């Protein structure tokens, strides 16, 4: 049946797409030759790349930081890693570039009517209600929970070592994900998921391999089918959740489960006699009630934020931490330097009369923070973002490019509806921003300030948390959580790469996940050798 639907869409929409591609003005922009006359353009090779970003890095080397690719049905897409263009798209033009249809409708499949897929007008409303839950003061109150659950994780790993031997090769990803879910449960919803205790919540089951099942290496029919979404009336999207294939079923099953969990959590809050709850959901509900009725979030929108937070706030951080521990394993001398730095900070805290580090102590861990930034630079969990110009516009470039006809240009006129793809992974490795060693590990770049001159993204000039008014609302949350967890783990354990023979892949499942070559059927994993610090 799905093939019939796809063929029908192809017949109707290929001519439309072809006509649209004629209107565009990007023909003179250089880019990789199209693999064939294929209707898929470059989409298939980008989505199937063995290592996320490798193609983009190669294209930046060949064409400069702004280049053109073909999307399905011959439509041109403009890719950019140019800092000025990114600043223009994400900051200067404010809401002038909306999220493209395919990511928006895909997000709705697993996060309903949440902030992540809201239109510009609705986004301001969502963000105003959610902001009070993500202030610095609010987040600092979460630190004891971050520390307690990091220490619980550490105890679990110690137990592994006792059962096994003094060192052990451990897949660190699942327990990191259990810990980040438990953290989110407590600080966001005042709820105990008990994932680290091995409790099988229906949510953890329905989240397991959600993105790899739904988005990793999509079949050609799905890529072509999704491309038709750019041309169909919006009421058709309502039916996507009923598509019977695994790609769509996994998302709609998750959304149903998340909504069930969300209803339970909201009921707990509203029946709670303690109205001054300090968790994210309580603050969101209180902030919503203070709003004028016209601007309030509906019940469905609140459930959707919960479904989104459960995804956006846990595995993103768990995978990012898995990469962080991978980098720490590859660089034992940096690992030791982190340990020494924590020791000094602890001694200072003790001399002051504090039992433990306080939030401002984490800001003084200059090298540890530089390591976190460097890992976020090389391993951005969201590798690119697709935006659509809401009107005709002219994009400024800080790095001029040479067109096919040999002209050197500093700006690119674009048509309304043009897809502009921000390559987060390519920007994060741009030599003009990060220096000649941009492809290699060097946390020191964040200590001499050389990497942080331009202020493109919300954090450390990185695009990893995006930029502008739709940037990650949880970036401070994620950083404080990583600081607390990394200090606990590096103080307690020594990390090494396992013996040679394991090749780690950054796979593209909508988000960038760690897997092991030739063991992809085992799912997301990061195997590291751990032992207790002597
Ligand atoms: C290392 C961890 C994280 C990374 C790399 C990350 C990255 C991102 C990125 C790139 C976006 C923009 C997506 C887009 O425009 O389509 C985003 C949005 C968002 N993130 Fe995060 N995130 C992380 C952790 C978190 C955490 C811990 C939370 C919540 C507790 C969170 C909640 C959100 C929300 C609600 C949005 C939507 C914001 C909006 O549209 O205004 N994220 N994140």
CATH topology: Cytochrome p450
CATH class: Mainly Alpha
Q: Roughly what fraction of the amino acids lie in strands?
A: 5-15%
Quaternary status of these chains? single chain
Task: Using the CA coordinates, give the radius of gyration.
Answer: 23 Å
Count of discrete domains: 1
CATH architecture classification name? Orthogonal Bundle
Query: How does the helix and strand content classify structurally?
Result: alpha+beta
Low-pLDDT regions: none
Widest sheet, order of strands: 1-2-8-5-3
Number of helices: 22
What's the number of extended β-strand segments? 12
Which hetero ligands occur in this complex? protoporphyrin IX containing FE
Summed over residues and divided by their number, the pLDDT gives a mean of: 90
| Percent helix | 40-55%
N/C terminus separation: 62 Å
Query: What's the overall geometry?
Result: globular
Q: For the record, what is the CATH homologous superfamily label? A: Cytochrome P450
Largest sheet: 5 strands, mixed
Binding site for heme: 472
GO molecular function, one term: monooxygenase activity
InterPro entries: Cyt_P450, Cyt_P450_CS, Cyt_P450_E_grp-I, Cyt_P450_sf, Cytochrome_P450_monoxygenase
GO cellular component, one term: membrane
Task: Provide the descriptors you would attach to this structure in a database record.
22 helices, alpha+beta, 534 residues, Cytochrome p450, 50% helix, binds protoporphyrin IX containing FE, five-stranded mixed β-sheet
Question: Would you kindly provide a written description of the structure presented here, covering whatever features stand out?
Answer:
By secondary structure, this protein is an alpha+beta fold. The chain has a single domain (1-532), classed as Cytochrome P450 (Cytochrome p450). It contains 22 helices and 12 strands. It has helices at residues 2-23, 43-48, 54-63, 83-92, 101-111, 120-130, 136-140, 143-163, 172-189, 202-207, 210-215, 220-227, 246-271, 280-290, 299-312, 315-330, 332-352, 359-364, 366-378, 424-427, 431-434, 475-492, and strands at 66-70, 76-80, 97-99, 167-171, 384-389, 393-402, 408-414, 419-423, 493-496, 504-509, 511-516, 527-532. Strands 1-2-8-5-3 form a 5-stranded mixed β-sheet, sandwiched between helices. Strands 4-12-9 form a 3-stranded antiparallel β-sheet. A hairpin with a 5-residue loop joins β1 and β2. α8 packs parallel to α22 and α9 packs across α16. It is globular. The termini are far apart. Protoporphyrin IX containing FE binds at residues 115-116, 127, 308-309, 312-313, 316-317, 320, 381-382, 385, 464-466, 470, 472-474, 477-478.
């Amino acid at each position: 049946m799905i093939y019939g639907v796809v063929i029908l869409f192809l017949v109707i929409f290929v001519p439309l797409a072809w006509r649209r591609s004629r209107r565009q003005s990007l023909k003179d922009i250089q880019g990789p030759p199209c693999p064939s006359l294929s209707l898929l353009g470059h989409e298939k090779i980008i989505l199937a790349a063995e290592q996320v970003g490798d193609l983009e890095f190669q294209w930046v080397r060949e064409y400069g930081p702004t280049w053109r690719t073909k999307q399905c049905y011959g439509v041109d897409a403009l890719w950019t890693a140019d800092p000025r263009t990114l600043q223009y798209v994400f900051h200067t033009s404010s809401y002038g570039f909306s999220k493209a249809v395919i990511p928006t409708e895909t997000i709705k499949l697993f996060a309903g009517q949440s902030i992540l897929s809201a239109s510009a007008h609705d986004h301001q409303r969502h963000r105003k209600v959610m902001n009070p839950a993500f202030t610095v003061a609010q987040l600092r109150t979460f630190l004891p929970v971050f520390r307690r659950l990091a220490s619980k994780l550490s105890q679990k790993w110690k137990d592994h070592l006792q059962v096994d031997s003094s060192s052990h090769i451990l897949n660190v990803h699942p327990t990191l994900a259990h810990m980040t879910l438990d953290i989110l449960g407590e600080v966001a919803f005042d709820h105990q998921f008990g994932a680290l205790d091995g409790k099988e919540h229906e949510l953890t089951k329905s989240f397991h391999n959600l993105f790899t099942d739904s988005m990793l290496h999509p079949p050609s029919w799905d890529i072509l089918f999704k491309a038709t979404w750019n041309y169909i009336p919006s009421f058709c999207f309502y039916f996507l959740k009923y598509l019977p294939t695994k790609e769509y079923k996994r998302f709609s099953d998750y959304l149903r489960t998340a909504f069930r969990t969300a209803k339970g959590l909201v009921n707990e809050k509203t029946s709670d006699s303690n109205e001054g709850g300090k968790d994210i959901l309580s603050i969101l509900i209180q902030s919503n009630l203070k709003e004028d009725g016209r601007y309030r979030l509906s019940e469905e929108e609140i459930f959707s934020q919960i479904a989104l937070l459960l995804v956006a706030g846990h595995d993103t951080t768990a995978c990012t931490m898995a990469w962080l521990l991978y980098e720490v394993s590859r660089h034992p001398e940096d690992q030791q330097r982190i340990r020494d730095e924590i020791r000094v900070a602890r001694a200072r805290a003790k001399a002051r009369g504090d039992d433990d580090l306080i939030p401002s102590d984490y800001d003084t861990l200059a090298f540890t923070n530089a390591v976190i930034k460097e890992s976020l630079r090389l391993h951005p969990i969201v590798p690119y973002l697709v935006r659509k110009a809401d009107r005709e516009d002219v994009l400024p470039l800080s790095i001029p490019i040479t067109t096919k006809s040999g002209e050197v240009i500093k700006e690119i006129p674009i048509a309304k509806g043009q897809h502009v793809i921000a390559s987060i992974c390519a920007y994060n490795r741009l030599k003009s921003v990060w220096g000649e060693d941009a492809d290699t590990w060097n946390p020191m770049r964040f200590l001499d300030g050389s990497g942080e001159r331009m202020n493109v993204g919300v954090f450390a000039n990185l695009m990893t948390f995006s930029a502008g008014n739709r940037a990650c609302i949880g970036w401070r949350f994620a950083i404080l959580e990583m600081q607390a967890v990394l200090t606990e783990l590096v103080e307690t354990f020594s990390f090494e790469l396992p013996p040679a023979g394991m090749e780690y892949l950054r796979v593209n499942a909508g988000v960038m996940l760690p897997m092991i070559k030739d063991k992809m059927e085992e799912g997301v994993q990061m195997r590291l050798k751990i032992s207790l610090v002597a």
